[in-house]
Structures are given as structure tokens and as C-alpha cells.
Amino acid sequence: MDGNGRWATRRFLPRVAGHKQGVEALRRCVKACADRGVGVLTVFAFSSENWNRPVEEVSGLMELMVGALGREVPRLRDDGVRLHFIGERGGLSEKMIAGLVQAEAATAHNTRLVFNVCFNYGGRWDIARAAAQLAARGEALTEANLDRAMALAHVPDPDLFIRTGGEQRLSNFLLWQSAYAELFFSDKLWPEFDEAALDEAIAAFRRRERRFGQTSAQLASSAQQPRQLA
Ligand code: IPE
Ligand code: MG
User: Fold this and answer.
1) Dist. CA 229–CA 156, nearest whole Å
2) What pLDDT sits at residue 63?
3) Atom 5 of ligand 1 has which residue's CA nearest to it?
4) Pocket of ligand 1 (CB under 6 A)
5) Nearest CA to ligand 1 atom 12
6) For the chain, which ranges sit under pLDDT 70?
7) Within a 13 Å sphere around the CA of 123, how many CA atoms are in the beta-carbon half?
8) Which of 34, 146, 157, 178 has a C-alpha 20 to 30 A away from that of 228?
9) Within 13 Å of residue 38, how many CA atoms lie on the same side as its CB?
């Protein structure tokens, strides 16, 4: 979800106002995904590297998160959304951690949409943490074991990876899991990413041929079902 700061700056507003608008865009996106039958939505809300931003922006983002937890969770619960918070919890405030735990518990029975919020997350952090866990347990560092130890082991690998804001990079998001994700880069700033923009990304995804290492001819000859959009 990139582009909140630019959205605000263009309007002569403080950057935090852009993040606030970003929460609105996210609420809309969650609903749009659920309405379209998307099974899993994973968003990058705060990266391990975002601590390097100016203190007032970091504290603004923390406040926004705590506020959003209080305000949004009852609606998400009623809409069938199951929340998971992915990331390093050490370094977060007691209040925030309590909010995350409570939100996960309150929505644990939901099945309509799995909504993973990556907060204080980094793809490298996830891989290193999974490897350390396996090492501590004396387990082999195999792909299958790493997969199971990863923070997103409860969901399949992403099919579609969307980055807004015009940049074309992964910025340490879902490094392990995105091995075969279709990448979609949108020039829209995140606060402007609406239902039409989501539909455009999904339409682009549908036009891609997903070969997973095979050839086109092999795909055409096999009776393989097309993979579902997770
Ligand atoms: C949101 O967009 C990303 C977060 C860390 C919440 P940015 O804050 O990176 O916006 P730009 O790139 O400065 O426009
Ligand atoms: Mg940015």
C-alpha cells in the first residue's frame, strides 16, 4: 500500500493525513475482496524498515493502527473477516499487542476472507525467523519445513501481488511466498486505489499464463484446472 505520503503532500496536508486516508482505502479494499470471493488478502501496513521514518510519522502510524483496531474490528468480525497480524511483536506497545491479540481472537471463527495484516514485518525477518526455529528444534532446513515455519503458513502462496504508488519493487514483502506470484504495479497512490483499480489488477491477472516452470504446450495438453485466485 504505497503512496499515502505523496497523496497528502500533493494536497498540502501532513503525511499522517495520507495514512488516515489509506485506512479508508483499505476498508474499501477488504470489502471489495470479500465481495469478489477472494479467499485471502495480505497487506503490508508497516515494514521493519519503516521505524527509520521521522518519529512523528512513526508515532502517527502507531496511533492510527491502535485507533483502527478499536474502530474496525467489530465490523470486520460481523462481515466474516478473519484477522491475522504478521510481524515482530517485540517493539510494539502493550496496548497495540493487546489490540492485535483481541482482534485475532474476536474474528477467529470467521471464514469468508482471511485478512493478514503485516505489521513490523519484513520478508527477510520471516525467513530468518523460520530458519532459526527449525535450527532450534534440530529440524532440517528443507523447503517444506521452512514453508511450515513461515509466518504465513496458514495460507497458500499469493497468486497476485499488487504494489501501488508507481514503484516497481518488492521492498522486502513476502519474499519467500511470492516465488510464483503475478506482479502488478499500479501508478495509483494507495488512497486512490478503488474497486475499479482492483478489478483492473484482477483482469490483468486473469490474462497471465501461469506455467510454474512448465511450457505452454504442457499446460494446454494437461487437464489441469486453472488455479483459483487466493
Ligand atoms: C504508505 O505509503 C506506506 C506505509 C509505510 C504506511 P508511503 O508513506 O510510503 O507513501 P509515499 O511513498 O511517501 O507516497
Ligand atoms: Mg512509499
Assistant:
1) 10
2) 97
3) 46
4) 1-6, 19, 22, 46, 50, 165, 190
5) 3
6) 223-230
7) 13
8) 146
9) 24
Which domains are present in the chain? 4-208+225-229 (3.40.1180.10)
* pTM beyond cutoff 0.90: yes
Predicted local confidence at residue 222, as pLDDT:
83
| Identity of the amino acid at 115 | F
The string of pLDDT tens digits covering residues 16-30 is 999 999 999 999 999
d(CA 20, CA 22): 5
Q: Please identify, by atom number, the ligand 1 atom nearest to the C-alpha of residue 45.
A: 6
pLDDT digits 0-9 by tens, 55-75:
999 999 999 999 999 999 999
- Please give the pLDDT value at position 126: 98
Q: What are φ and ψ of residue 49, in 5° steps?
A: -85, -15
Cell of 6: 505523496
Q: For residues 102 and 82, give the distance between their C-alpha atoms in angstroms, rounded to a whole number.
A: 12
